[in-house]
Design a protein that fits this description.
- It is built from 11 helices and 17 strands.
- It has 2 domains: 306 residues, Alpha-Beta Barrel (TIM Barrel), CATH 3.20.20; 83 residues, Golgi alpha-mannosidase II (Immunoglobulin-like, Sandwich).
- With 400 residues, it is α/β, with parallel strands linked by helices.
- The strands form 3 sheets. An 8-stranded parallel beta sheet has the order 8-7-6-5-4-3-2-9. It has a 6-stranded antiparallel beta sheet with strand order 10-11-12-17-14-15, covered by helices on one side.
- The radius of gyration is 21 Å and the shape is globular.
- The longest helix has 14 residues.
- Helix content is 25%, strand content 21%.
- Bound molecules: alpha-D-galactopyranose (GLA).
Length: 400
């Protein structure tokens, strides 16, 4: 396990005059919907298309959301993913839910989600079919060419969020496909968070946030898997995109795997810390009805969540990538700074970060709080830490 040492050099000042100067001048509509990265639940990482993905499961998750304190911690969306739809549109050309999975219909789920003060999200693809492989030519119909009709249907379900995937896109260019659904969603008049999911294939960070598209977040990578190698690969692809994230428009390195069993608790803490310092969406991807206490504790770390949700809305910047140790720094609205130090290697590492490297004023004194051990110490703002393999230490540094 890692231990933390704080250097106790004389005290110095914080020169973080950036807080107020970097706040957005006024909240746009996108900013209002997605002022901070989306937080919630999505069933995909735990169920994929298996039969357990159905109405009773989703209702159970909604109940657990309240019971386990996730709503209190800031999680809001209950999003359902691929395989909710029937393989055929109805006689009018509308999508309809799979009657075996959702016998009560989608609207009823939305009503239930809303009755708990939560928000509801749905999924489809900017293609002829969604992503689940077509079986006997019975894939699930996608939105391509049906944008207006589908957006109207979704609005009639009172959805608050749409994840728009990229499968079966007939090799048509990405941007117009995402513009078409963006326009259709806006035409409904209902505020709907628009989650662009084209896997980073066409550099969506360059166009998905434009007004014509209106994307509130865009996937930057392919699908995450519940392995350390997958999480690490995705982190490395997403961490370099910090300049493109801002309130209303976030890089999305995919949903959380915390709790699914394929990583150690140390690795899941790294996953959660790295996603938070990268201002990534925090979408829980594990079955909350069976979650283990250690995983729940990670997801409920309110101090780490606060780093992700900080209203300044800046994605952390990597300031060091050396010998397998990554240092990422995120300025916060009140002038504090969050720092994550991640050891990607298979051996223990001793890391030191100097106050100047963090951009702090050497003449001031700081309080350094470890957001996992919850210990805090006065110091000059510099950090020293012993990191176990794959571990991340996360701090909030405040001027005293
Ligand atoms: C794609 C997406 C995933 C998930 C599946 C569903 O792979 O990237 O997040 O939505 O489709 O089939």
């Amino acid at each position: 396990m890692r231990s933390t040492r704080f250097s106790k050099l004389p005290t110095f000042a914080l020169a973080l005059a950036l807080a107020s100067s970097q706040l957005p001048a006024r909240a746009s509509e996108a900013g209002a919907l997605a002022a901070t990265p989306q937080m919630g639940f999505n069933n995909w990482n735990s169920t994929h298309c298996r039969a357990e993905f159905k109405e009773t499961m989703i209702r159970g998750i909604v109940d657990k959301f309240i019971e386990l304190g996730l709503k209190d911690a800031g999680y809001r969306y209950i999003n359902i993913d691929d395989c909710w739809a029937y393989w055929q549109r109805d006689k009018d050309g509308n999508l309809k839910p799979n009657p075996e999975r959702f016998p009560g219909g989608i609207k009823a789920i939305a009503v239930y989600v809303h009755s708990k003060g939560l928000k509801f999200g749905l999924y489809t693809s900017a293609g002829t079919f969604t992503c689940e492989p077509k079986q006997e030519n019975r894939g699930f119909p996608g939105g391509l060419g049906h944008e207006e009709r589908d957006a109207k249907l979704f609005a009639s379900y009172d959805i608050d969020y749409l994840k728009y995937d990229n499968c079966n896109n007939e090799k048509l260019p990405a941007k117009p496909r995402y513009v078409a659904m963006g326009e259709a969603l806006r035409a409904t008049g209902r505020p709907i968070f628009y989650s662009v999911c084209e896997w980073g294939e066409n550099k969506p960070w360059l166009w998905a946030g434009e007004a014509a598209v209106g994307g509130n977040s865009w996937r930057t990578t392919g699908d995450i898997e519940d392995t350390y190698a997958s999480m690490l690969k995705i982190f490395k692809l997403n961490v370099v995109l910090d300049q493109y994230a801002k309130p209303g428009h976030w890089n999305d390195p995919d949903m959380l795997e915390v709790g699914n069993g394929g990583m150690t608790d140390v690795e899941y803490r790294s996953h959660f810390s790295l996603w938070a310092i990268m201002a990534a969406p925090l979408l829980i991807g594990t079955d909350l009805r069976t979650i283990k206490p250690a995983a729940l504790e990670i997801l409920l770390n309110k101090e780490v969540i606060a780093i992700d949700q900080d209203p300044l809305g800046v994605q952390g910047k990597r300031i060091r990538d050396r010998d397998g140790v990554h240092v990422i720094v995120k300025p916060l609205a009140n002038g504090d700074r969050a720092v994550a130090i991640f050891n990607e290697t298979d051996t223990a590492r001793d890391a030191a970060v100097d106050v100047a490297e963090l951009g702090l004023d050497k003449s001031r004194q700081y309080t350094v709080r470890d957001l996992w051990s919850r210990e805090q110490h006065p110091g000059d703002g510099s950090l020293r830490v012993d990191l176990a393999p794959h571990a991340t230490a996360m701090y909030r540094i405040s001027a005293r």
